[in-house]
């Protein structure tokens, strides 16, 4: 206790020194520190540019300010909601889980057509005109997805647009986005999706500053050109909740990788994939990787059931009581406990990555949206309204961030500045190459 107070007092004193003008040493920042500095210095909410002097934080001070003493890491803020033993409550690292029941994109589309006819709400909504693609962009928008519902209409539903999204110096889109309602049972389930051009974008994984693995990567050797940032998304559940999930950071194994577990992987050649991990993959080929449970899309089909502990179970991911509604109450006492705010990552045959953010949605309906977006495999991301993030950053001709936006209007506004001073949980950053 005395040690904790002493450390807190020292940190408070250092903060006072910083405000009053502490001299800055010319030492390199860690990758996560550079990211925080870049966004806090450059991304003004009101789009106004300001000249910013680049101050360098001494490593000894960076280490002290980001260190969390073991004696202070209480568990009160991590208390779980009551758990249902019959639901997704792992008590050990999960064994490899394989898909049992799946359905294809053709089956999904047929189901959509049948349901639309059954609704009887009038003729199908006319498709908005798809914006013309820029010549020689090399990155075409995916084909439109026919809406399941015609009433009430949802503006731009199923149509991919690059309007008001990050673009390269020639004005060619780096990202397309759309919105879609994929659920037959729950018409108010909405998914916002963004597809990234991975030929012109590179992806990087960052360890949250309260994750245990952060102490292994305090001095990464590989720093990024952070002025090229275009987007940041959440990653997966925190390590203590995603029991047994592995992680690799800049070719360094932070948490042991699990055979057969769903994995978002970034290879050293900058290509990205979503796979079931196998120990046959040489670690020297992997730059970053993060794992969570089972694939939610496999072979272009929604995974409906999985084999788990020698039993066949539903593929819904509930995290044993940690799913909460927008008021913070556990969903586990509800009949529709699986309806939540969720994110996921999917990979297309063209190598482009799709990020999906769903509201009031099940795992399988979120997966269905990714199938309709052309994804062949997908992995669940984070969940709950405070943890789902997709921020876009807009740069001027000098690569200074002058504006930012969010993928979903339902994403909480305060999360747009979440990474201005670093963040406690893992995340992914997208950079223009």
Can you describe this structure in just a few lines?
The chain is of the alpha+beta class and 433 residues long. Helices cover 15% and strands 26% of the residues.
Describe what this molecule looks like in 3D.
The protein has 433 residues and is of the alpha+beta class. The protein has 2 domains: 2-77, no CATH class; 78-203 and 231-432, no CATH class. Helices cover 15% and strands 26% of the residues. The chain is built from 5 helices and 20 strands. The chain has an 8-stranded antiparallel β-sheet with strand order 1-12-11-17-15-16-3-2. β8 and β9 (272-276) form a beta hairpin. It is globular and about 55 Å long.
Rg (C-alpha, Å) = 22 Å
Distance between the termini: 48 Å
As a percent range, the share of helical residues equals 10-25%
How many structural domains does the protein architecture include? 2
* Average predicted confidence as pLDDT: 77
Order of helices and strands: HHHEHEEEEEEEEEEEEEEEHEEEE
Poorly predicted runs of 5 or more residues: 1-30, 42-98, 115-135
Order of strands in the sheet with most strands = 1-12-11-17-15-16-3-2
Structural class: alpha+beta
Tell me the fraction of residues in β-strands, as a range. Answer: 25-35%
| Multimeric organization | single chain
- Strand segment count: 20
Biggest β-sheet strands, sense, barrel: 8 strands, antiparallel
What spatial form do the alpha-carbon principal axes imply? globular
Separate helix tally = 5
